Amino acid sequence: MILESGILLAHGPLQQRIVLDAAWERPVRALSAAPFGRDAFTALAPDRAAAPAVFRALRERQLIVPEGCDEVAALWDSFGRRPEDSGHDAAAPAASWPASRYGLPQRLSTAAAAAGAGKPVRVLLIGGCVTQFTEEPLHALGRELGLDVRTEHVWPGPSADLARAVRRSRPDVTVYQPGVQPFLTGLFDGAHTCDDEERAHRLALMKNALTLSVRALAEALEGSLGLVHNVAPPALSPFGRFDFAEEYGLRRVVAELNLHIDRCVRGHSHLMVVDEERLVARYGAAALFDDLVFPFGHHGGSVDPGDERPHQLPALGRALAGEYLACLRAHRGIGRIKLVVTDLDGTLWPGIAADDGFDWIDGDATSRWTHLGLHQALSVLKSRGVLLATCSKGDAHATLGTWEKAADRLPLGPDDFVLHRINWLAKSENIADLCTRLGFTPDQVLFLDDNPVERAETATALPGLHVAEGPVHGFRELLLSSAALEGGRRTREAARRTDTTRAMLRREELRAGLDRNAFLRSLDVRVRVTRAGEEHLARAAELFNRTNQFTTTAWRTTPEELRRVLTEPDTHLHVGDVCDRFGDYGLTAACLVRNGTVTAFAMSCRVIGLDAAVPFLVAALEDGAGGRHALSAGLTGRIVVTDRNTPARELFADAGFEARGDDGLYLLTDPGRLPELSELPVTVLSATAAGAGGP
Fold first, then answer.
1. Can you give the three-state secondary structure of 372-413, one letter per residue?
2. Which helix (H) or strand (E) holds 207?
3. Per-residue pLDDT tens over the stretch 28-86
4. Residue partners of 267: CB distance under 8 A and separation at least 6
5. CB–CB of 200/208 below 8 Å?
6. 0.85 exceeded by the pTM?
7. 465 Cβ neighbours under 8 A, 6+ residues apart
8. Of 119, 225, 235, 519, which is least packed with CB atoms within 10 Å of its CB?
């Protein structure tokens, strides 16, 4: 370990650099020439409480190694001696593999060293120097999100090396950047030297290579998240303003390449596209990429031509790191916001609707387009399955009446919101009531309000509530770019969530005047039970992953894993569609039975109040056995208690199972104890099975 101007350097060409806070220079400089332990390091530390975290961080980065260990060899093992790092054959001499580390050195502050307190996330970066430049911002952004991000970089190589790297690293997220310099040089840099036919031929070769690479990546990941870069178009074309005149101009080449990447990725639910084109559209090509200075195919971040070091300015690294973590959060549903509550007067429209009306719609002022833009953004979220509600000071009758008259001229009307709270109560009180009615916690809610006093009041009274800060004209960007407001790929159930939630609320109102069985029979609840086929796997995985209340084991999975599981003997997956006289709630239940055990059961919170869980479970067990007469004793189920799955804890007991011990195990000792479906106040309909053995 060598210290130069506050930078810790590994020996040799590896160029592994860590920037230390100045306060930590003294203990490192004093101890770098002799063996030492944690106590000696702590004794010299400027912050003794933080010393163990800094010591651990240096050790994990192999800048501190055990006594007697060859530091250079340890670093080579960590950073250099992996054939897949370079794509070269394993028999090639290690010195021939590229070992340069590009990017800004990681800043190891006291806070950064303490990042181990966050949730660990391993990120495997397979790509060129561009992906190396995301490492430091990944660490920094991860700390802001409560994540302890650990990165590993390998250079692209053959598919077999890619698979080995994934197996060894076992990452939570794998980033694959196929558009490295050798890949793009033939397409971009040589475009003006060949004719349309040759450019079309090169493009076809690249498409074939991408097909094979993406398929190999999807298989190697075995269901974990993979992010595949597409390619940002250069700021300039070699054909200039006459790019349109070429049959295969650069604009068409990039468009077809990215369309092909979309098609390859679309077939795998655990893969997502990192859209470089979208980043260019948002931030500008000159701010991110270097083709205004470097050759087209270099495809690196913006540069400082006066600096001869192989470096890039940090804008691209930060933008990509933000995208990687946003994709992870969206894919896993981390911190997902399920309800957006908006103020009305001054926020959803200018002025006071009850006094000023909606004449603003007929103007052409900036404020008109600002508020219409906010309407549109909220409409987009509604189509994704995010619920909308209002919370505003005023007279409900006057406000809603005026709004209703203008609704056909606006993207959103009163019926697009599940609930309205328009009164003179404190807004925090109204939002708390909305959470109670809809079954959400404040950390699942985002509040929009133009008044900073109201924002401060709600944030203080409801810890965890997300409150949008800044002016109203910034709300649209937040709504359309936040990963917390993206619930995965669009589904039919998500698009209809507002309608199904409003139906749920109407049910609750009806229930107040009836006993339980009479209430359920009055609803005409029907559960359609189907043995899952290929077309059901994506939605079933979504239910298992997103359900936190009515879930027996909180099992998380992917469609690919479900597909593999269903090839096992004595395994079946059933799904349930639920409806009542107020609405059709879609596919809202899933039950997986493996070798005589109910290993996973999930039901959407929108249908919990319909008492459909026991009928669905019994129907799934009967169908899986080949009929009620074929059921035998010995079926088991398990409840894994979480802090939120209280509604599901009595499922097996209610279905006739007996508790065995204190570990959540339930046993069906007598199939006759299962309820008769015909005697329940819920109608069960059996659909055609997908066939023996599942999909």
1. HHHHHHHHHHHHHCCEEEEEEECCHHHHHHHHHHHHHHCCCC
2. helix 196-221
3. 777 776 777 888 888 888 887 777 877 777 776 666 767 667 666 655 555 544 433 44
4. 218
5. no
6. no
7. 431, 442, 443, 445, 447, 458, 459
8. 119
